[in-house]
Write a structure and sequence with these properties.
Strand content: 5-15%
Order of helices and strands: EHHEEHEHHHH
Distance between the termini: 30 Å
Largest sheet: 4 strands, antiparallel
Helix content: 25-40%
Length: about 220
């Protein structure tokens, strides 16, 4: 489906994409780690040949890769078994489209080669919502980071009869979202995220936790 808006520099967007026919796109932690590394290395204008980067013995870790200026600012992300979510700010003209093309192409090539499959991995073009309302933008932080709750309580939004402590512990230990970067336990902020380019909704870690708890327990 064609988007009803064009990406614009300085604007914020919620991007998401899922596997074709809702198939799994992350089979194991190795897949998820690969995608997180690609979030970093694909966010730059130079071409990315992943195997050449990891063969460079002067680089202790992929996040030490001497990349040039980034294409987008990433504010949040979450990987789910068959889809992912990213909160982005367009940094340079055409940056989002270029970044997503590199990211989806690189990951699809990796996944298909690993699993000896062919064909599309993702369902059509990636989806995007323009976050042009302040309340909507703030809510997206909760929406993205609460996605993993569905893995232990699939109907948690409709049925609030769940163990809140269990959910909080699960989110604290979920390694494949930026949740811990907002509650004080993250380690990837400096390389994947650029929080400074997003509104300061959370003056401290407690503010973010309070918002998460509000939406966890909110009832219509």
């Amino acid at each position: 489906m064609e988007r009803k808006f064009n990406f614009a520099t300085g604007e914020f967007y919620h991007l998401y994409s899922r596997g074709v026919d809702k198939r799994l796109i992350f089979d194991d932690d190795k897949d998820r780690e690969r995608f997180l590394k690609l979030l970093f290395v694909c966010n730059h204008s130079q071409p990315v040949v992943f195997r050449d980067i990891i063969k460079n013995t002067s680089i202790k870790d992929i996040f030490d890769f001497p990349a040039d200026k980034s294409l987008v600012d990433i504010g949040a992300y979450c990987l789910m078994p068959n889809h992912f979510h990213i909160l982005l700010r367009e940094k340079v003209e055409g940056g989002i489209s270029f970044f997503m093309k590199k990211l989806l192409t690189a990951y699809s090539k990796y996944y298909n080669t690993k699993n000896k499959r062919t064909g599309a991995l993702f369902e059509g073009n990636f989806k995007a919502s323009h976050l042009d309302d302040d309340n909507y933008l703030k809510y997206i932080y909760a929406y993205i980071h609460l996605n993993p709750v569905k893995l232990i309580y699939p109907k948690w939004r409709e049925n609030k009869d769940f163990d809140l402590e269990k959910v909080t512990n699960f989110l604290n230990n979920y390694a494949y979202s930026s949740y811990n970067d907002y509650v004080g336990g993250g380690t990837r902020s400096a390389v994947i995220l650029n929080q400074e380019e997003f509104p300061s909704y959370f003056d401290n870690f407690g503010d973010f936790s309070d918002m998460i708890n509000f939406w966890l327990t909110y009832q219509e």
